[in-house]
Specification:
The protein is built from 3 helices and 8 strands, in the order αβββαβββββα. It is mainly beta.
Length: about 220
């Protein structure tokens, strides 16, 4: 747990350093906490929230307008899988398992279904969709160590807590372009894996963000 907290704090500090003062007029920074789980050859169905493990990280969001944002996030977590958790004969005989930590970096766009701004009673909450590109670093044994691009997408909800504070929840998915997270490649044509022999993982959790300078200071017309 202590390592998770140290990594999370380091991520937040780095995000703060790289956010310039001028961009803070339209930006907010925050923390994320939740769980992540794996989907692939060991969990092909998939079984959602399979072996969930703690995932923590930091967020920096640049708000272009009340509908559109660009978000940078870094999340550290763990992925697990075990063939013996499933009852089919093939997996019981194969008996593969893995447990590996990872670092997920991503740049996502966000589209708000409703206009959303900090500090306003009128535009205080919205569901949103998000999508973008990422890069993951998987730290494990030599057999399973890998890095690579990811395609990210998900759904979320955010709302105002105060003039500067916002919170929300998100469920997102990462499609990798390799088959090395679980260490199992090309299981054979008799095993029709929905994910086309590439590994996926999902991250579910809540976040809290803080806005340095409010929209109210730069757009008084919105203050109604």
């Amino acid at each position: 747990m202590f390592n998770y907290l140290r990594i999370s704090l380091l991520i937040i500090v780095l995000l703060c350093v790289f956010s310039e003062a001028e961009s803070q007029r339209k930006g907010d920074v925050g923390i994320f906490s939740g769980v992540s789980y794996y989907m692939g050859e060991i969990n092909p169905s998939p079984r959602h929230l399979y072996k969930p493990s703690l995932a923590v990280g930091g967020i920096y969001r640049h708000n272009f307008n009340p509908r559109n944002s660009l978000r940078f996030n870094a999340i550290y977590g763990k992925l697990k899988g075990d063939d013996l958790d499933f009852t089919n004969d093939f997996q019981q005989q194969r008996a593969e398992n893995f447990e590996t930590p990872y670092l997920d970096l991503a740049v996502n766009t966000e589209f708000n279904f409703f206009p959303y701004q900090y500090g306003l009673r009128k535009d205080r909450y919205t569901p949103y969709v998000t999508g973008g590109l990422g890069y993951n670093f998987v730290f494990s044994s030599e057999k399973r160590e890998t890095t690579g691009l990811t395609l990210t997408y998900g759904l979320g909800f955010k709302c105002n807590i105060s003039k500067r504070l916002s919170g929300g929840c998100e469920w997102s998915f990462r499609k990798t372009f390799n088959d090395r997270i679980d260490g199992i490649e090309n299981p054979g044509p008799e095993n029709n894996v929905f994910y086309h022999n590439n590994d996926w993982y999902s991250i579910v959790g809540i976040f809290v963000t803080f806005k340095f300078l409010s929209y109210l200071y730069e757009c008084p017309a919105y203050d109604d």
